[in-house]
Amino acid sequence: MGDRQRLLLVSPDLQEEKAPRRTAYASVAEGYALSLSALPGYYAAAIAAPTSYVIDVLDSTTLVRVQTLPGHAIATSSLQTVNNLGGAGQKCLISSGKDGSIMTWDLRTNAHSIKLTNPGKKQALLSCDVTLDGMTVAGGTDLNTKTEEASIVYWDPRQPTTPLRSHDSTHSDDITTLSFAPTRDAETNCNVILSGSSDGLLCTSNADEDDEDEATINVGNWGCSISKAGWTHNGSDPDKATIWAGSDMETFSTWKGDLEQLLSIDLRTPVLHSGREWVTDYFITARSTSNAMLSVFTGSHQGDVALLSNTNFSARDAPWCIHKTWTHGHSGVVRDVLWDEIHQTLVTGGEDGKINVWPILPITDAPRDEDEAMDVDAAPPKHRKRESSPDAERRKRSKK
Which superkingdom (predicted)? Predict the structure, then answer.
């Protein structure tokens, strides 16, 4: 690790929010808030409980629960809002489930309006995404132990029970994350999809190609189980990071568009101390904001959240910077965050069943000078002493 990576810089406008503005609770007992999404006027939270999987819909202004969607029969695995689906031209809520379906939800009827299935191969779906034009939906399956196949299945949403194609050999294990490129490929005019898997591979593929041997564009081997990945929206410079990924081992990486790795770091390493303290226990997610800044959200087992960034996501030795912390809102692991730039709020959901809304302010890119940076300890200091819920230890990073 380079000397500069041994520094955690402090943003000149470091903000510490110590209480959420509003709090809501999962509609079912012992429910975890696993993933969050936004619709005009609403927030949606995928809730997992021992005996039920629902989607709570909350008023974005008051955080009052306005309805509860029935969800998937077996575990909602992903939840997101898409701007267009099947030419409808309006935002809609879409989810994938371990019941082998992808559903589009109609808040007016409190039920799904479209249900995409693959009757020939009923496998759990762990991830999904939709092209910008809304005419192609992709779902990533778990590993079928009998056929030893994990597939990326593609649908035209207007033909929900007849997949367009299936790519069955891109990955050799669970496909945990899918993300279509924000624009079509400039040379081929095709839809490019990024996939990540428990097999440690990141792949980009031509989603419009029926022949899987011709579909694969690039492959990068990280060597660890990938949990999340996405695009940085900085594809104009081929030498800059255009892809990010997070692993189950709390490591974070960035990649060029051709999947040449740029950096890989254990996010638990940069530790802020000397009067202020931040200790990362796990990676939550990363988001590209409207100013093209990549924000990395990390959490502590106490239920706190921090926003970190790197001064240069394309340089292995570039130092990290802490911009904001949100504390004392959760009593356990935070599963997801939603950065709502329109309302200038951060929404967090956790294993304590809480959905919290916090204020956010514009981020200052420039960190303080290096002589004002905080050293990084090889061994993290002890966590600050603050009571957590009695079952917080049981809940740490447990998987639904």
Answer: Eukaryota
